[in-house]
Amino acid sequence: MTQHTILACDDDPDILAALRIYLTGEGYRVLSAADGLEAVRLVRTETVHLVLLDVMMPNLDGIAAAERIRETSNLPILFLSARGEEADRVLGLHAGADDYIVKPFSPGELFARVRSALRRYTQLGGLPSGGAAGPGPVTAGSASGPGTGSVWRTGELVLDDKRKTVVVEGREATLTPLEFGILRLLIAHPDRVYSSEQIYEAVWRDVALDPRRTVAVHVRHIREKIERDPARPRYLRVVYGLGYKVVSDP
């Protein structure tokens, strides 16, 4: 069974100490950093499975640190912040965060968010399992014709669920596990419109409270990676007022 390593980054030593006590008590290995620069360094030099990032820090704040981490890694990033306004949450999502925990938080909430993020990334192929069994692939099929196991194709967009790859027009697109999960859901059911709530509950494996902003940010990121012109998408379309779909005949 793999022991997951969590990097906790906060400029408040009391919060860092509390996070270490909470997380080691749950069986996690914990690394600590007091600023964003140290967090980025540790992600690049150590084996890290999840990052807890405070937003307001010296030297390099959490937003900038998340952007740098995302340049080289798809691991889960959870923001810790006393600022819970929607604009701050959206800013964090744009920087590449997967979730946002508002201070003060209870140990129970922290454990639930951490377990959920690790489970989600394990099931989407982004992390070693740690002994947890992920789900099997979506029912075999193709957006444009007979399925070949876990491979789906529409136009020049090909998603291989077994290899966890996405190729569009001959080039490989690098998606985060969450982005891959969204695209897999949509391409496996071409022309079917999924609401933000349905996408969130299927991919995040959590109850959707107000997922519209979260899903919209991830869809925008997917379009930037698979579409020649994201403003005029060929594959991933929005159905205004209803949700999103991958078209079967782009």
Automatic annotation (TrEMBL):
What Gene3D superfamilies does the record tag this protein with? 3.40.50.2300, 6.10.250.690, Winged helix-like DNA-binding domain superfamily/Winged helix DNA-binding domain
Q: Name one GO cellular component term.
A: protein-DNA complex
Q: Where is the Response regulatory domain?
A: 5-118
The protein's matches in InterPro entries, at most eight in alphabetical order, are given as:
CheY-like_superfamily, OmpR/PhoB-type_DNA-bd, Sig_transdc_resp-reg_C-effctor, Sig_transdc_resp-reg_receiver, WalR-like, WH-like_DNA-bd_sf
Compositionally biased, Low complexity: which spans? 135-145
Secretion signal, residue range per the UniProt entry:
none
- Sample GO molecular function, one term: transcription cis-regulatory region binding
Against SUPFAM superfamilies, the record matches this protein to: C-terminal effector domain of the bipartite response regulators, CheY-like
Q: Which GO terms describe its biological process?
A: regulation of DNA-templated transcription
4-aspartylphosphate PTM sites in chain numbering:
D54
Q: Where is the OmpR/PhoB-type domain?
A: 149-248
PANTHER family linked: REGULATOR OF RPOS, RESPONSE REGULATOR SAER
This one is known as DNA-binding response OmpR family regulator
